[in-house]
């Protein structure tokens, strides 16, 4: 019998409210190992890496194996246990937040069908993102945003028929709002549009289309405009040098900052401060 193990990490109270990782880990179970019956107060996705086991929820019984994925819904009584002869090994992530219901509602998971079989979806990304969530774990803001970014990418794998879902659930607006929130919290760092798209859980090209639809500008234009607005505030309210203002709002090149500022405000930073 192969050696059993369990690695888990619980985040506790999160700094993020829209969507946050609650716990993450992976485990090689001993034969017959069982959790429940019980309920969770958050969503939890389990992906089976090897072996077999049984998932019981709302009176339904699912026999599962390598590559299958199942989800626990908040408030649903469940139990799941490893096979006696070939016990499963799985990775999991628990999550919660204001966007959790909408995100899960847009996926292939349903309360009536909380299981996705391996032949219904490509599993490579699932394993990768679960591992990355665990690798970047932590309780500071940087770690939490990194975990949430990977969680968005994980959930996006399970979203089907995106065009129909977006029309029904407003997911495209959600992606834009999420990207804007990230920009608002991270604009002072040298973030890139790739960073913004990764946090939102979508590709750069998809983020571009979403911003063009709802903001009538590109993500890069929005980021630059946001930084310039913050620079205006600093120029009015502080005595920081122009170079310090530029650095404080995410511009590492003072000359580029001056050109971008003048393009948007029609005057140079120093002229703006005088006026």
Description:
The protein is of the alpha+beta class and 275 residues long. The protein is built from eleven helices and ten strands. It has helices spanning 100-105, 124-135, 141-157, 162-169, 171-186, 193-200, 204-214, 219-237, 242-248, 254-265, 269-274; strands at residues 5-10, 20-28, 34-38, 43-50, 52-57, 60-65, 69-72, 78-82, 89-96, 115-116. The strands form two sheets. Strands 1-2-9-4-7-10 form a six-stranded antiparallel sheet, with helices on one face. Strands 3-8-5-6 form a four-stranded antiparallel sheet, with no helix packed on it. α2 (124-135) packs antiparallel against α3, α5 packs across α6 (193-200) and α5 (171-186) packs across α7. The chain is elongated. Mean pLDDT is 88; it is low at 161-169.
- The overall pLDDT average reads 88
Uncertain segments of ≥5 residues (pLDDT<50)? 161-169
The H/E string reads EEEEEEEEEHEHHHHHHHHHH
Provide the gyration radius in Å: 23 Å
């Amino acid at each position: 019998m192969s050696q059993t193990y369990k690695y888990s990490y619980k985040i506790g109270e999160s700094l993020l409210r829209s969507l946050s990782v609650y716990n993450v880990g992976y485990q090689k179970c001993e034969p017959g190992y069982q959790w429940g019956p019980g309920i969770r107060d958050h969503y939890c996705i389990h992906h089976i890496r090897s072996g077999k086991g049984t998932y019981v929820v709302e009176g339904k019984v699912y026999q599962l194996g390598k590559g299958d994925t199942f989800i626990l819904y908040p408030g649903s009584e469940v139990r799941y246990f490893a096979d006696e002869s070939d016990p499963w090994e799985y990775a999991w992530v628990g999550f919660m937040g204001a966007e959790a219901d909408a995100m899960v509602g847009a996926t292939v998971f349903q309360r009536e069908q909380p299981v996705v079989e391996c032949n219904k979806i490509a599993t490579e990304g699932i394993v990768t993102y679960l591992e990355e969530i665990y690798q970047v774990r932590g309780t500071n803001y940087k770690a939490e945003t990194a975990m949430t970014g990977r969680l968005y990418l994980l959930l996006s794998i399970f979203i089907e028929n995106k065009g129909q879902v977006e029309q029904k659930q407003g997911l495209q607006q959600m992606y834009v709002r999420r990207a804007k929130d990230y920009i608002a919290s991270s604009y002072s760092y040298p973030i890139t549009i790739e960073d913004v798209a990764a946090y939102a859980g979508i590709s750069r090209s998809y983020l571009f289309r979403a911003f063009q639809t709802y903001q009538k500008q590109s993500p890069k234009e929005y980021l630059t405009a946001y930084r310039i607005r913050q620079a205006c505030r600093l120029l009015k309210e502080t005595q920081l040098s122009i170079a310090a203002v530029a650095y404080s709002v995410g511009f590492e090149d003072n000359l580029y900052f001056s050109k971008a500022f003048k393009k948007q405000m029609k005057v140079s930073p120093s002229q703006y401060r005088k006026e």
